[in-house]
User: Fold these one by one.
Assistant:
Number 1:
Amino acid sequence: MTDTASSDALVHDPKGGLPRLIEIMRRLRDPETGCPWDLEQDFSTIAPYTIEEAYEVADAIDREAWGELRGELGDLLFQSVFHAQMASERGLFDIHQVADTMSDKMVARHPHVFGEESREKSAEQQTRDWEAVKAAERAARDETRTLDGVALGLPALLRAVKLQKRAARVGFDWPETDQVLDKAAEEMRELVEARDTLGPDEVEEEMGDLLFVMANLARHLGVEPEAALRRANAKFTRRFNAVEDALAAKGRTPHQSDLAEMDALWDAAKAAEKKSD
């Protein structure tokens, strides 16, 4: 769209939908009249915002903040439009091609919905079929190793689980959860040994090994570790806020308290939560 009047009309149309957002992004990146900040950005500088917005979507869902979710999804959608605009400027692809690529992928991966395959199969079979289709797509990209294609940019905890799932598909996995627990205990002992006798690099390595095994344990227990850790973070925040509130009621701050008192207030907050449940 190049006609200024038409562009202005679309930009200010409250019901303009996705075309409006695309035009706004184009205008923000206009070399002559765009926003200086937006014009300075590239894929690498915008990527951290994209990741942040995805987490904010997850946070709204975790809190069941449905009134906020629409806005967070909009922020995430804007990130896709931003990346697509920069790609369009380089002659790589545009947002419409992004949508077409996604549509083609979904149709190809759901032959039981859009093709001739029967829908009369279990969710487990559908998962296996999905993985087979994705494996074929990776092979077409010459990604022939088991762990090829697991994105380096994923959060480390999520990537650990994905790597473990890939390895498990070819039989490289403990058959029993107890074996994972034994490995976790072994890694804990090695971490203590590194702390007591080795240097910071070895301590970091052993800590990484322990975290990797804990991610594996979560997988064996059917727990999504990222969600579990977010839940633990929220619980810690909630209870520590209660500690601060209790201290404030006494006219004091955590700096004016000590560990023994705060620990007692923590236990009281914990007990109060369990009683309310």
Number 2:
Amino acid sequence: MSWSPNHPDSVDALFERRKAPVLALADDAREVAEACHDMARRFHRGGKLVVFGNGGPSTDAQHVAVEFVHPVIVGKRALPALSLTADVATVTGVANRVGLEDVFAHQLRIIGEPADIALGISTDGDCANVRRALETARDLGMLTVALTGGNGGAIAATTGLHHVFIARSTDPRIVKEVHVTTYHVLWELVHVFFEQPGLLAPEVAS
């Protein structure tokens, strides 16, 4: 079988499919900086980060939480964070009693505070329990941040969310790759702001 650089599974094609979504994230640099600034202000006021997602994004949620609590970069300050997907007993107990769609929102109603940050991750933007949790967080006064894919789905269409970032690809593998890059950037810039309190004035975000 002949092989061509234009073959859909060629190395060139594999990288080309990833180029536009990554460049789109770079185009959102100011919005990302604004989200990080808002997150840093919440941490500065004693808030915590609460992360959640289904399936693959559930492991991303745990990844985000551990990086804030136990920074891989030596010398960076640990910041309070937890993943709502990490406790199997709670997740399955709530899902059994109140339903899967409320599994994250129910937990937020118990542990969420207005100073906190809610970060919801959904590959296609249509996860009902992630959307409901973000709505609950919004109603509690929490800062809401969403990572979605495709066209953003129902989550991007939800009113009142503070920051929504869309990995513009329908390939779930590429969406996940962009999400990993996005939350690593969030982690890094949050520390830039948090470690320099003079940058935490409301008007400073770039």
Number 3:
Amino acid sequence: MRITSSAVSLNVADPIASAEFLKRHYGFTEDMAAEGFVSLSRPDVGFNVIFLKTGLSTFKPESAKGHADGLLLAFVVEDIDAEYARVQAEGVAITTPIETEEWGERYFQTADPNGVIIQLVQWMTDPTAAA
């Protein structure tokens, strides 16, 4: 098997609001959009983030329809403190202030207008050393 690209698709009530949040605060760009659908990317992320309007009749399988509850979009960054200050200055509400886990993961979280959690992470130690 050869994988040529990757994406994560999230069901949300308002795909445009979620897309605008990632574009404005996290530097994503819009690749495609249609009724109930927005696909975003960044060249350094390695996958697309797709927002689908909850309840689309074309969404398959039916059993997976719903909201993106319990999911985190996590992105590793080089300077967590600078990113924290940046998003605060942009007026983004912080849902979880900076915390550092004992295994060296330093992170904070925000939420987009649909409640999707965006987590920025900086590894303070080699993450493989904690395994």
